[in-house]
Amino acid sequence: xxxxxxxxxxxxxxxxxxxxxxxxxxxxxxxxxxxxxxxxxxxxxxxxxxxxxxxxxxxxxxxxxxxxxxxxxxxxxxxxxxxxxxxxxxxxxxxxxxxxxxxxxxxxxxxxxxxxxxxxxxxxxxxxxxxxxxxxxxxxxxxxxxxxxxxxxxxxxxxxxxxxxxxxxxxxxxxxxxxxxxxxxxxxxxxxxxxxxxxxxxxxxxxxxxxxxxxxxxxxxxxxxxxxxxxxxxxxxxxxxxxxxxxxxxxxxxxxxxxxxxxxxxxxxxxxxxxxxxxxxxxxxxxxxxxxxxxxxxxxxxxxxxxxxxxxxxxxxxxxxxxxxxxxxxxxxxxxxxxxxxxxxxxxxxxxxxxxxxxxxxxxxxxxxxxxxxxxxxxxxxxxxxxxxxxxxxxxxxxxxxxxxxxxxxxxxxxxxxxxxxxxxxxxxxxxxxxxxxxxxxxxxxxxxxxxxxxxxxxxxxxxxxxxxxxxxxxxxxxxxxxxxxxxxxxxxxxxxxxxxxxxxxxxxxxxxxxxx
Length: 517
Ligand SMILES: [Zn+2]
What we know:
Blueprint: H1 9-16, H2 38-46, H3 52-64, E1 72-76, E2 80-84, H4 86-92, H5 95-98, H6 120-141, H7 149-161, H8 171-181, H9 189-203, H10 207-212, H11 219-229, H12 239-243, H13 260-273, H14 281-286, E3 288-293, E4 296-302, H15 306-324, H16 327-343, E5 348-350, E6 356-358, H17 366-369, H18 375-381, H19 389-399, E7 405-411, E8 421-424, E9 438-439, H20 452-455, E10 464-472, H21 477-482, E11 510-511
Parallel strand pairs: 4-9
Antiparallel strand pairs: 1-2, 3-4, 5-6, 7-10, 8-10, 10-11
The site of zinc ion (ZN) has 6 residues, from α6 and α13.
Family: Belongs to the SAMHD1 family.
Organism: Esox lucius
GO molecular function: dGTPase activity
């Protein structure tokens, strides 16, 4: 026995095997091999182990039985020491997940902010961790929600895998490169995340491992994918799904954009950019609660937190203005995009069945896509082939800091026919806080909206605006150093020619298409 506990291993095990504790998880294991992780123990608590002594006994016995030793600990620069469930580690230790080590979180921003060298790999681990934190906070605060260990694990997997589908330089690939090669394409990295997740599970034979850890297939595969992408099936939710609908708001919140994906990237990007982050997700975690709103359970916030949520969106806006859409970041991303477009026909990746795919075709074959990362930049830069000469020269210009020059930036209202860059709070013209519900200390289960005028009269009157940026592609010294902004000396426009009366520009400029993030 451990310490002064009065519960024997046998008693604990019989509890673990009770019908209330998803006993099938433990079937096939004898008492001494019972495996339980933090999430198991919390789950046990909500399923009936409410007595704190029982809970502590169970925890201690499990711990003494080395039940926690198979959890891996990651030392994360933002969240500190993170404990990862063995199934999550099995997912991380695959080529498809490791690929994210080679995709810059902020694409071309690294060429402007020297600290922004972080990758999708660490962000994904952070989102998996925060997804687990949020769902376990809710479970602890509201045991009546009956969140199961299986659901906790699925939420963590969704957090971990939500960005598997990103291409080279993250948003550059789906926001700028693919639309240039395939105009009108609806392909987005979220779609690829679903395909890559299926591929990862299949080629690494993880189905039996998932089942061993208590997941039910194929239902849980669908549940995980819907958390990443939104509903895959247009059928209305059944009663059980309505009660658990709040689980779909943790990793990617389509209702109001407040999710752990943002919480991680605000903290991580700010840290690496050297920009102060005024939003504290630790605090938000403490003031979340699930309430019923119009027949569905949704994540709500304590009413006094409304100003912090406004601050959160101000932080997002600040990161976009100062870093993600910094004019030099955009110039460099345009150059990388131009290079990738010019190289597309000449760089191939072997995919399934020995077939080869161009860069832009690799999105259709996950085996080929696994090999497509930021590495393509070096591949072009160090190439010797004549076919890649044009692309290579563009990247050489980046390394020599001979960049496309920003000619002028102005608010789009002056140019009614061209609207190219959107800065918003994530919901077009809408105020995202209008889509959040709050609860009060006195009525914790009663969800209420809070209008903007109830908060402050100093908040924004509009939640989106558009900008035009015009870049000159000529990178010779006369243009770059002399500040000559006359467009007549620039390369021909490759987008549909537009007239900019205030600039007297009719050709020779590239309109910068900022991405929607
Ligand atoms: Zn993300």
